Amino acid sequence: MKTMMRRIAIPTAALLLLSIPAACSGSGDAAKFKHEYEVLNGQTTADGANVYKQVDIPANNPFVYADGETAKKLLTTKTGILYMGFPECPWCRTLLPALIAAYQESGYKGPIYYYNALNDRDQLSLSDDGQIVTDEAGAPVYHDLVQILYNYLTPYDGLNDPTIKRIYLPTTVFFKDGAVTAVHLDTIDSQKDGYDPLTDEQFNEMKDTLVGEIQPIQQ
Known about the structure:
The protein is α/β, with parallel strands linked by helices.
């Protein structure tokens, strides 16, 4: 699992999203999601080191926006799929095509809830004397979600304390009747760099794994 800190430089193209009227990006969550991810296609990251992967999102995609409180309620009371990620995340851009393909292949009819948890997470570091420092406090609901998913999550990298867990992105959660059935962390273990393209074998392995994680919530 990739548990390193992922500080992603946000390019100018992404910042332009803030000034685009809703009417220009289509209506509804599906159109908004498609625009939010596709606007970065082929753009160079702000540090000039990488180019964002091409991601083609179907116009009739199943993504429905959710905030942290909604995500918490879903996980503890409902059945469904929750995808946590953000457009600039290279691992997220790798996961999405496989997640969409798995959704289509499985025949699942419900939505995929989308929660951009980036700005709700805390930022912790280790001081020179080995003390854990809170550089930025996370939203209370983020800590609630960490507790709900605790047994599935990996330790916060760099703190030398395995009891402190973190929601790294992407994280995809499958849940049924208010109970978590599976959590898919990151993409696939064999992918070492989020900007690297997947081979057909890697893509199919990840897609098949996701199909297997969807099946229990359909039964």
